[in-house]
Hints:
With 192 residues, this protein is mostly helical. The protein contains 8 helices and 4 strands. A hairpin with a 6-residue loop joins strand 1 (30-34) and strand 2. The radius of gyration is 21 Å and the shape is globular. The termini are far apart.
Amino acid sequence: MASAAVNLVAKKVLREEAQKRLASKQDPYFITVKNKKGKPVQVKRSDNDIPPGISASDAKILLKVRRRAYRLDNSMSVPILHVRYGVSALVGLLPVVGDFADVLLGLTIYNTCRKAGLDKETTSKMLFNIGLDGVLGLIPLLGDVADTFFKCNTRNLIELEKFLTKKGLANLEKTRAVEDGGAGIVEMDELR
């Protein structure tokens, strides 16, 4: 009876913590929509759109990273607890070697992201996520549980999407300025 009560409390606490963390961040796998009657908001599975203004090669990189991050972080679930995990969590169960392999898997995603021409801020955030994931994984058992909830590959995907969105908006602004014939550009001499 006591173990059932502990399981119930743990399930509720873990779910609430996960919802708090995801509520403040963009979830790369789900979008929020209203149903036809305007009733409460429902969550439906959807492939998020490619950010406008990015090149075809950047879109290809984004889709590749989405697929890899999903496989590594969220491809499987525990039905009773509603906790998603992936290959990364399973590999991380192997002492030391598994954690090293997990870091290498994270670096492969980072290497793919680098092809999009990341800035220094995004690069440092991604490498920090991979490093923290590796350090967390070194803690026996508890680290593997923390690694399951940290999901560094999904965090890096979110960072890549933010970067590509900024890049796409900058590209759109450039094309608008060119289409306007430079009408929106003010020379420094004109300000004096």
